Amino acid sequence: MSNSLSRRQLLAASVSGVLLPTALHAADNQKETPGHVTEPQRDTPIAGTTDVLVCGGGPAGIAAAISAARTGASVQILEAHGCLGGVWTSGMLSYVMDAEKPGLNAELPRRLEEMDAFRPSGPKNYIYDIESMKVLLEQMCDENKIKVQYHTRIVAVEKDASNRVRGVITESKSGRQAWRAHTVVDTTGDGDVGALAGCGWEFGRDQDCPCQPMSMMGIITASPEALQQFDRLKGGQTKDEFREFIQKAGHDPSYAKPTLWYMGGSVAAVMMNHEYGVRPFDAAEVTAATIRSRRELYEICQGLKNLGGAWSDCRLVTTAEQIGVRDGRRIKGRYFVTVDDVRLGARHEDAICRSEFSVDIHAATKEANKKAAYGSGGVKAKPFDIPLRALIAADVDGLMMAGRCISGDFFAHASYRVTGNAVAMGEAAGVTSALAAKEGSLPQDVAWKAVSAKLQSLRKPVA
Predict the structure, then answer these.
(1) Are residues 303 and 339 located together in one domain of the fold?
(2) Which of 56, 176, 313, 398 shows its CA 20 to 30 Å from the CA of 297?
């Protein structure tokens, strides 16, 4: 059969204005490698050019985008899912930790409270309504004239001859598109952009694994009486008692410390499972973990329902669009945050925030989970500074990171990975990227004095 387009195909293409994908037609003289498909060369249209391109619209990405826009930059967010917020929304986390910080960490709870969508949990943590968070984040992007495109995945990185990142290539319903920017910020959580750019990275405890487990969040309904009995925030019942109750319902949860956060009415968020040894950059592994975890949540809820009484109306209402990831790639930066920083409570001149969360390492295997669901790995943490240098890629120019994928070791990451810190990192990455665009310089060449002054200005309390 000929590889050329038929007359009918060409006519259809001309009428529709769309050229049929050339990738479907291999050139006659191309030699393919066994087990691979050789794609022909093609031109990719540039969909947008901006000062700051934020790849990932999660907690770090939202903070980077808003801070960059408030610093005067044009900003584009590319997000793989159908909403902003990442683990907060499509991941249904429902709980923010280590958020007693100025700036957006203070603004978000205030605005959520105005929406009747906020519940404090001490001075550093809070619960929020997921749908309200989605609406608020979209509203804030609109207020700051930030462009957003959903359902769009980063598949390649464009670099110039000097090894500077100039943009990214994406795939979506619109096909393959190119996006260019003065500075690119990797807020994908798993360091996808840094890895595609050829940066060095680490994962897990010893280069590769063991790694921290994943968890699928869910929303359940039952009578207020049933849910309030095990509400973690009230402290009336311990996690061990909730586990024992689930066991009574006929299921031993894969997470030894199942947790329930009561959200009012007949609604609660739950974290009741662990998926062990899953690499977040292996789609087949993540798919299998997603299927197992969703089934486990369903079976637990069915067991609770069968207990009757206050639990007779128990139902699993929904599970997260994406399974929650604790451990992903950590991209090599110009500073490497280590366990010694954590132990000693390191201070840095270019500190962009201070992590005050403990070292939180969840059990890496089912066997370890039976002994202890989580622990500190023997590391006693002191509040420590995260320097701006850890947010600037070392192996390429023009790339910054914020959130879980910044430069650090396994133990430091186990503290700074919580989303209150991700927001603060995003603010710093956004300001630095915007100033770099304004000056026509690279992130590492922006004066810390200028970054610090702008951060302080953005983080001033609202009167």
Answers:
(1) no
(2) 56
